Amino acid sequence: MSFQDKSLKCIDCGADFTFTSGEQEYFASKGFTNEPKRCVPCRRAKKQQMGNSTYDSHSYSSR
Ligand SMILES: [Zn+2]
Q1: Least enclosed by CB within 10 Å: which of 23, 31, 43, 46?
Q2: Is residue 18 assigned to a domain?
Q3: How far, in Å, from the CA of 14 to the mean position of ligand 1?
Q4: Rounded-to-integer distance, Cα 19 and Cα 25, Å
């Protein structure tokens, strides 16, 4: 299977970013079928936010 670099638009900041063939290969190897919707900086920010909210909801649900 061969991949080609793809130009995508970030849904968060609206910036164009490249979904490289290497990343596509990585996604495919992980079994991900969805394309990334966010550029790398937004993905990182989102990941950190999710980490925090997971921690919050966990402490709530333990009550
Ligand atoms: Zn972005």
Answers
A1: 31
A2: yes
A3: 6
A4: 10
